[in-house]
Amino acid sequence: MLPAVERAGAAFFKNWSIHLQGLKYDDSLTVGQNQAAFIQPRYTTGPQLQMYAQILVNNQGKRFTTEGRGIAYGSAPGHSDGGRALYNEAKPPYYIIFNQDNPDIKTTVWGSAANNAWANDEAVDLTAALDAAAALNNGQVFKDATIAGLAAKMGVPAVTLQATLTAYNGYVDSGTDSDFGKGSQYLTKKFIESGADANGPFYAVKLYPESHISMGGPVIDGKCRVLTSETYLSPTSTAAEQAALEAAVIPNLYAVGEFANRAFYNVNYVGAVSLTLYPVMGRIAALHAAQAIAANP
Questions:
Q1: Secondary structure of residue 49 in the 3-state scheme
Q2: Angle between the N-to-C axes of helices 158-174 and 147-154, in degrees from 0 to 180, rounded to the nearest 10
Q3: Last residue of some domain: 212, 240, 265?
Q4: Residue 140 has pLDDT above 70, yes or no
Q5: Range of 60's domain?
Q6: How many distinct helices (H) and strands (E) make up the chain?
C-alpha cells in the first residue's frame, strides 16, 4: 500500500519507519534451522538475530543498505534505516551472505529478564544450523564452496555477486564502507575464495520482508484523510491555514491503522493501545467518508 499512496501523491512524515521481519515462520523447520533462516518470531522467548559481519544483497547480488543491528527487521533512525531501504529497494528476495568465518552472529534474547536496551547481546554459532538448513534443499538456505556456485543456487548473476564481495573486501581492508557507511567495528570479515586464508563454504539465506510494525507512513489529518503535504492544524489555526490543509487533501483517500498512525501518537510504540486506536481511526475515516459521499453524491 505504501507505493500505491505514494503514487497517488501522498506526502510521508519525516523519519517514518517500518519494521520488517524476515521470512515468515515455517513450522516445518526446527528452532535451529529457523534461526539460520532468520525467521524466529520477534516477540517470543528466543533470539532476535542481528547482522554484523554478514552482508545483505538484493536479487541481483548487490548491496543496497548498511548492515548492522536491526536490519533483519529494519526500521528508520536507530535501526540502520533498514526498513526504508527495503521499501525503496522493493526487489525481494534479499539474501544474507555468510562465509565460514562469520556464521556466529549476535542475538538479543527477548523474553529474558535483562532484555533492556539491547544489553544482553550474545554470540551464537549457527554453523550447524546453517548446514542443516542448507541440507533441506528447500530453497531458503544455500551453501556452496565457491562464490559462483553460490550465485547459481541463489539465481543471481555470479559476476555481480563477486564484484559486490570484492568491493566489500576492500572496505574491510580500508576500514571504511564508502557505499553505505557500515560501522568500522562491523567490517571484520572478508570473503576469500582461494589461498591460505580461504573461508568457504559460503552461505546465502533468502529473505522476504513482512511488516512487523510501522510508525508514520503517509500524512493524514484528524479525519484520516491522506494529504499531499505535511500540513497541521491547531485550535489557533487561521482560515488560510485551514484552506491550505483542505487544498492538500487527496479526494476519497483515507488511511488508518499502523499504516498511518503518526498523527495520533508520533514516532513510538503504542503496544496494547493500538487495540482501541485503530478501530477508532477506522470509525473516524468511515464517518467522514460517508459525509463526503453525502455531500457529493
A1: strand
A2: 130
A3: 212
A4: yes
A5: 17-212
A6: 9, 11
